[in-house]
Amino acid sequence: ESPGFVANVVLEDGRIGSPRLDNDLKDVSFAAVFSNGAQRTNTSSYFRISGLKGYFNRELVELDFEIRNLDDPNINMTLDGVLPLGSVYGLLNSPSITDGDGEIEIKKFQLNGRYADMIDPNRIGQVQTSGELEFDDAELTINDEEVVFDRGDLVLSDNTLSVKELEFN
Asked: Cα separation of 41 and 3, whole Å?
C-alpha cells in the first residue's frame, strides 16, 4: 500500500533554462535524492539537491538545498555565487521589472526554517538567515525607471540586516 521510495538523480555538464531567464545556467552538475522516508509518508519525505554548481555568463553559482516534511515543509538552503541581473531579473516575476544589468555577489547565504514561517510576516523572525549580498553596478528597470545599486553590501547575521556603504540611485 505504501512502498518505500528513493529516487537518485545525478546531472553532469547540464543546462537549466526557463522562459524567465535571459541566459541558461550552464555546465550544471548536482546530485539529488527524493525519498518518502522511513514512515513512507509526506511527513517523513524529503528532497535534497547537493553540490549544485553552474555558470551564468561564466559566473559560478553553488547551491545546496533540502526540504523535509512535505505536510509542513522545512527548508534548508545555502547559496554562494554571482548572479548577473541581466540573466535572472525575470525570476522576480514582476511585470513592472523589465530589465536588469550588473551583478549581485551572494556570499554564504543560508536560509533555514519552516515554509509557513517564511510566508507569514508575523512569524518570519523564526526563520534563520545569514550571509552577505554585495552589489556591483546592479541595476533593475522598474516601471521604466532605472534603479541602480552602484556598490555596497547587505549583511544578514542572526536575522539582523546591516547595510554597509550602499550607494543607490
From this structure: 10
The 10s digit of each residue's pLDDT in 32-80 is: 999 998 889 899 999 999 999 999 888 899 999 999 999 999 999 999 9
**73 φ/ψ angles, rounded to the nearest 5 degrees:** -60, 135
Q: Which string of b and e fits 50-68 if b means at least 16 CB within 10 Å?
A: eebebbbeeeebebbbbbb
CA 58 to CA 167: how far, in whole Å? 26
Kindly state the helix (H) or strand (E) to which residue 116 belongs, with its residue range.
helix 115-118
Amino acid at the residue 28: V
Q: Confidence band (pLDDT; 50, 70, 90) for 8?
A: very high
pTM: 0.83
